[in-house]
Automatic annotation (TrEMBL):
This is Probable membrane transporter protein. The chain crosses the membrane at residues 12-38, 83-104, 110-130, 171-199, 205-228, 240-260, 272-289. One of its GO terms (cellular component) is plasma membrane. It is found in: Cell membrane; Membrane.
C-alpha cells in the first residue's frame, strides 16, 4: 500500500510506517518510555530524510503522551508546579532549538548533527541502563542486595539561589534547576524529535532528586506541552512536519502501546530494562556505522 508523503516528497509503504509505529508503541508500553527516541532512527533507516523524521516524530509523541498524562493525573501522580517550570523551560528550549535547526540546515549539517546526537545520547544512556540491569541481575543471583540509593538532589542544584517548595515532589530547591533542565529537553526535542522522557526521567530522579511516584507523570505532562510547541515551531519555521507520516505512526503506536502494556505485566522489569538497553545500543551502533559510510549523494538538496 503505497502512500505519498508530501513533505518528505517520496512514496512509502504505508503498512511499513504503521508497523514502525506499532514497534515503537510496543516498546513504549513494555518499558514505560516514549518511543520518540527510536521512531526517528527507524524512519531514517527506512529512508525518510532526518529533518522530516525528527519533526514528524515530535507530533507523534504528542498524541502518544496524552493518554499517559491523563492517567497519571487522575491518580495524583503529577507535580503541576514542577511541571509548569519544566514546560516554561521546554518552550524556551524549543525556540533556541529552532534557531539551531535553521542554522545547521543553512550550513547543510543538520542531518549529520541529528545522527551524531542520537549516537551520543543512545550510546551513553543505553550503556548506563545495561550496566545497572546487569548489576541488578547479578545481585539477584548471588543473593547480595545492592545498596539502596538515597534520594537527594545534585550538589550543584543545592547551591542555586531562590529556593521554592515543590510539595508534591518533596523538594525545596531553586526553580532554576528544573527550568534549565526543561530548556535542555526542549532543544533536544526540537533537534531530534524525541519526547525527552528517556533523558528527563533519570535527570529528575538523580539530579533534581524528585519523588519517584510523580516523576513519570510530571515527565509526561512536560513532554505533552513541549512536543506540541515543537510541532508548531517546526510547522512555522522548518516546515518539515509531514502530517501523513505522523498520522500513520500514531495509528501504529497507539495499538502497540496497549499490547506492550499487557506484556509488561507478565515479564521481569529488570530483564525488560536490559532488553531495552540492548535495543538502544544496537540502534546507536547502526547509526554510528551509518556516519562512516559514504552516502550515495554527498549533499542533501532541500526544496526552497
Amino acid at each position: 500500500m503505497d502512500v505519498y508523503l508530501p513533505i518528505a516528497n517520496l512514496s512509502v509503504n504505508g503498512l511499513i510506517i504503521v508497523g514502525l509505529g506499532l514497534l515503537t508503541g510496543l516498546l513504549s508500553g513494555m518499558f514505560g518510555v516514549g518511543g520518540g527516541f527510536l521512531t526517528t532512527p527507524l524512519m531514517i533507516f527506512y529512508g525518510i530524510p532526518p529533518t522530516v523524521a525528527a519533526a514528524s516524530a515530535a507530533s507523534q509523541v504528542t498524541g502518544a503522551s496524552v493518554s499517559g498524562a491523563f492517567a497519571h493525573s487522575r491518580r495524583g501522580g503529577v507535580d503541576y508546579q514542577m511541571g509548569g517550570v519544566l514546560v516554561a523551560g521546554g518552550i524556551i528550549g524549543t525556540g533556541i532549538g529552532a534557531l539551531l535547526f535553521n542554522l545547521l540546515e543553512r550550513l547543510g549539517q543538520i542531518d549529520t548533527v541529528i545522527n551524531i546526537l542520537y549516537v551520543v545520547l543512545l550510546g551513553s544512556i543505553g550503556g548506563l541502563m545495561a550496566r545497572e540491569s546487569i548489576q541488578t541481575l547479578r545481585a539477584e543471583r548471588t543473593g547480595i542486595p545492592l545498596p539502596a540509593r538515597k534520594r537527594r538532589h545534585h550538589p550543584l542544584v543545592a547551591n542555586l539561589p531562590m529556593r521554592w517548595r515543590f510539595y508534591r515532589s518533596g523538594l525545596y530547591i531553586s526553580p532554576l534547576a528544573p527550568l534549565l533542565l526543561g530548556v535542555a529537553t526542549g532543544i533536544l526535542t526540537m533537534l531530534m524529535g524525541i519526547g525527552g522522557g528517556f533523558v528527563l526521567v533519570p535527570a529528575m530522579l538523580y539530579i533534581l532528586g524528585m519523588s519517584a511516584n510523580v516523576v513519570v507523570g510530571t515527565s509526561l505532562f512536560q513532554i505533552l506541552f513541549v512536543t506540541m510547541a515543537t510541532t508548531m515551531m517546526h510547522a512555522l519555521t522548518t516546515k518539515a512536519v509531514d502530517i501523513v507520516l505522523a498520522t500513520l505512526l500514531l495509528i501504529g503506536s497507539v495499538t502497540g502501546a496497549q499490547i506492550g502494556a499487557q506484556f509488561a505485566q507478565k515479564a521481569s522489569p529488570v530483564k525488560l530494562r536490559l532488553l531495552l538497553a540492548v535495543i538502544v545500543l544496537m540502534v546507536a551502533l547502526r547509526m554510528a556505522l551509518g556516519l562512516g559510510y559514504r552516502p550515495d549523494e554527498i549533499y542533501t538538496v532541500a526544496p526552497l
